[in-house]
Amino acid sequence: MPETGRKGVNAMTTELKILRRESAQSEAYRQSFIFETEDENAAVSTALTALNARDDLKDKDGKPAKPIRWECSCLQKKCGACAMVINGSPRLACDSKLKELGSVVTVEPLRKFPVVADLIVDRKVMFDSLREMSVWLKSELTPDENTQDIAYEASGCLQCGCCLDVCPNFYAGGKFVGMAGGVPVSRLIEQLPKDEKSEILKEYRKRVYEGCGKSLACRKICPAGLDIEKLLVNSNAASVWKSLFWRKK
Amino acid sequence: MEKTIIIGAGLSGLTAAITLARGGRHCLLVSLQASERAQSVLAEGGINAALDVMGEGDSPQYHFEDTMKGGVYLADENAVRRLTKGAPEVVRWLAGLGVPFNMAEGHLVQRNFGGQKKKRTAYAKSSTGKMIMSALIDEARKYEASGLIERFPHHEFIEAVIEDGVCKGAVVRDCYTDKSAVMRGKVIMCCGGMAGLFPNMTTGTTQNSGYAAAKLFEQGVIFGNTEMLQYHPTTIGIPDKRCLVTEAARGEGGRLYIERNGEKWYFMEEKYPELKNLMPRDVVSREMYFVRRREDCGDTVYLDMTGLSAEIWQKRLPDLRAEIIHYLAIDPAEKPVPVHEGIHYFMGGIYTDINHRTNISGLYAAGECTCQYHGANRLGGNSMLGAVFGGKTAAEDILARGENGNSGETEFSGECHADEPSEAVRKELGEILYSGLGIVRSEAGIDSAIARLDALEKREGIYPRTRLGRSMLMSAKARKESRGAHYREDHPDKDESLRAPTLSWCEDGEVRVRI
């Protein structure tokens, strides 16, 4: 098997300062680890994997440490599992190349979900929101070429939760569901036939439109690079402006 | 009321759950992480069905013939006939769920894929798996709301509950609380391929440890064709895994070459003038392996996509281009990309009948963990089809059998853990298996791998995964011929007397193999 990763010329040493917590109930503390690599594609995920693979993991001060708990799956930016806060911003660990992060990197769990342990958070609230908003089709669709572009964009949401982490208006348990809710809904708004849209539009107005302060912080950090503004404009047009227009008529 | 336990919430697990729910039945959908994290979201190129929309006179019969031939006649003929016949309905169902398949002039368009003579692969740019998953997740949500689908989204399969030879349920651990529970009911395993037996060497997800399959093997479930590993011709190395360059890159016009005496040699086009770069994956990977070893050739095979039009990049392969730039700092529209074969798929797995029943009553399997559809080599575009169709078929069989018994409540109060060795041992096992199960194999190589495995087990103990690994090596040893992905340099020809699945199972702690 050929080597994985690309070898750069220079070895790189990174200190990872990780915010740790053994369980939801226990105290949080910071612990630093040193990771060295020659792979210029090495990401935070690479470092976490390598640290956990060590037989006797020790922190920067040589103190024995327990394996770092975190979630990952695809390691190529397509599943959203490894979302965490890196140097203060929510990102995917697999999409955070060490060479771009400086020699000391802070790593923390996402801030708007309950912590399970270390870097694992329970993102249940995102899935609950979608269920509460009835984000599903009631009947079969007839495929329509004109709706495919928006549907493709909206179906790309990873449900990673990064957008909720930076959103100034979202908090878990609130009425506003953030873009992790707004994006999947926008697929239905686009694809449903006109006479079947009213309920989902109502949900959209109530749980997305009315809560969104249009800071669009989410757009800049979306790891999937979704064009959130385009989806919002499209859904707003259908749910707010058109319905106002129809009501007047 | 009877509940069905589904292990795995990717394409096959979700489809099984939705099918059961549509039939009014309850299920417990168990997965290590949310469906958005399933390996299915990585599937890129597309899903096959003879929709006959491209004006080429395609039919399920042609799809059947290509699939059987691609798998070198090792697949279950009756199962493949049903699969290919049912394929158009599967794709139409998915389109009706809102999967944004590429369309033109009011109908779905289909692209060329390896080993197929017709344009038969429906696709959504180069993220078909993600698009299908998003639609299925939405559909499943409808039944989660009505209570028919109950999700257990951070839960690990520990073992099947088998009493008097009948599967009565599964033991499952909550990874967040570390408490385990016995779930009672019929079980459908949708746990993915055996990628976890090869840590860091495959294009798959790190979630897949291979443990679920290995445990079932140890518990007496019969497996088939475990020697059949698919090496995808075009992968690139990224940290901790291989990254796939979709076959669609060649379907849309990408060409493989190697430097020979300082000139580009398009070896696939020269050797296979009909299907060229789109020969089945086993053939392409083997050719790449051999040209790299020629004295007059360089040691790198390149995928040349510089001839693809701007429109193709934008409308059909946008994600692929971004991915290659991200990892290799090469723009594939400008420069050829160095590629290498990498382990991508497991044709072998749990042996089932055409209704997806295993040898243990009450236990079903669907998706990549099974073996009936792809024989000795899987065609691109058939895996997503097999996963969706398999999940649907297993669930339909359960619906047809009617309810029996009450599953009761699931209470998480136990303490059970997977029977797994350390990460170092898992890695060592992966290296041993890889040494015996490469693209080119020989009895001597396999024997040496088996000897290393003996030593590993002696030193570290016997585990479910060492047993399943042994089945792979013993199956490769038993198949003294070359067929599909299994190429033996000491038996380079096909032997028609071996045109039958390699069955393997664990009996009294011993691994046994029979063709």
UniProtKB/TrEMBL annotation, chain B:
Annotated region (Disordered), positions in chain: 479-498
InterPro entries named in the record: FAD-dep_OxRdtase_2_FAD-bd (IPR003953), FAD/NAD-bd_sf (IPR036188), Fum_R/Succ_DH_flav-like_C_sf (IPR037099), Fum_Rdtase/Succ_DH_flav-like_C (IPR015939), SdhA/FrdA/AprA (IPR030664), Succ_DH/fumarate_Rdtase_cat_sf (IPR027477)
Highest taxon in the source lineage: Bacteria
Catalytic residues in the record: 281 (proton acceptor)
Protein name: Putative succinate dehydrogenase flavoprotein subunit
Ranges where the Fumarate reductase/succinate dehydrogenase flavoprotein-like C-terminal domain occurs: 468-509
Taxonomic lineage from the root: Bacteria, Bacillati, Bacillota, Clostridia, Eubacteriales
Residues of the FAD-dependent oxidoreductase 2 FAD-binding domain: 5-383
GO MF annotations in UniProt: electron transfer activity; flavin adenine dinucleotide binding; steroid dehydrogenase activity, acting on the CH-CH group of donors; succinate dehydrogenase activity
GO cellular component: plasma membrane
UniProt KW keywords: Flavoprotein, Oxidoreductase
Gene Ontology biological-process annotations: anaerobic respiration
UniProt entry tagged with the keyword Oxidoreductase: yes
